[in-house]
Amino acid sequence: MANIIRLPKSSNKWTQNELDAYNIKISFQNATTFFNIPQAALPQPTISEEVLMTESADDTVTADNYTLLALMELAMIPDGAKVSTAVVDFMVQLFNALGYTHCPRITCTRLKIQLLICGEYKYAKPDVCIIDRSSRDDIILITHMEKKFGRDPNPSQLVAGAIATFQHNNMCRRALGLDPLENKIIPGITMFGTMPTFFKIPITTELVKSIECGEYPATPTVVLGHVPDIPRHRQSDGMKPLDNRCLILQCFEAFKQFVF
Question: What is the mean pLDDT of the chain?
Answer without folding.
Answer: 92
